[in-house]
Amino acid sequence: MQPGFRRAASLGTVVILAVTAYAVGDELHRDYRFKVGHRPSVSIVNQYGPISVKPANGHHVIVSAILHSDKVEVFQSQSGNRISISSHLLPGSDAESGRVDYEVLVPADASVTLHSATGPLHAERLHGDVILEGNTGRVDVSDVSEGHVHVRTMDGLVTLTNITDGHVEITSVSGNVALKTVTGPFIQVNSSSGKILYDGDFGSGGQYELTSHTGDIEATAPSYASIDVTARSEQGKVESDFALSPSYTSFAVRAGSAFAGTMGKAASSVKLFSFSGRIHLRKR
């Protein structure tokens, strides 16, 4: 058991309101139920296997865990309004025997932190902060509003859909990143070699920064978008479907490799940068 859990247990802060367990074939199902207050914090760490988080009515966090063998355990604790869940691998476990599948229901205002080395991560219909960390598994976030969305991954596909009024930061080494209808005061995507796709209207009054070292960047916007846009690729091709009004930029504008301009009232700032990838600002 980890030191933090031992200390919590010794102080009597571990509170499990309800625990049930039952076996189906070689799988062991465990269900945990925690009573929480306003804006709880939920953290789940899983070495192997998926984590899915959805909202539910009421003031409870409900965790359903499917253990694929007896080579893995689930540690859980509650300290006030903080819930911690983690998978603990036992000797002899591997990616299959150490797998745990988590399905979690939380109050919609909960802040969640999810980590899985190989499994997919999914969060939807929340309006608290969402932090997702993975290696190879895909990351999917949808219908989140009024919260921060932070994603860090190695090469898993990242998809964000219908994110509004959010502070979004995505860091990926080689995975592709797709944003659809994502708006907010600050949207930042950094990828070393993955492709970045944006499909939306860039909101109003936001700052959008899409950067990939060697990957392509494709941003699609409607004809009524209101943006001040700069785009540059040192070695790749850069093009725009829009007739932009020229604007000042700190770098030299060169046809085919860099452009800068405005559309409408230029309410949002859009910066598209790549070292060798292709950049295309498309008109929907």
Summarize the structure.
With 284 residues, the chain is mainly beta.
Layout of secondary structure:
Elements: H1 3-11, E1 18-24, E2 27-35, E3 41-46, E4 51-55, E5 60-67, E6 72-79, E7 82-89, E8 100-106, E9 111-116, E10 121-124, E11 130-134, E12 139-145, E13 148-153, E14 158-164, E15 167-172, E16 177-182, E17 186-191, E18 196-199, E19 207-212, E20 217-221, E21 227-233, E22 238-240, E23 245-246, E24 258-263, E25 268-274, E26 279-283
Essential attributes:
13-stranded mixed beta sheet, mainly beta, 1 helix, 284 residues, single chain, 26 strands
Describe the structure.
The chain has about 280 residues and is mainly β. The chain has a domain at about 1-110. About 5% of the residues lie in helices and about 55% in strands. The protein contains one helix and 26 strands. The strands form two sheets. A 13-stranded mixed sheet has the order 1-2-5-8-4-10-12-14-16-18-20-26-22, with no helix packed on it. Strands 6-7-3-9-11-13-15-17-19-25-21-24-23 form a 13-stranded mixed sheet, with helices on one face.
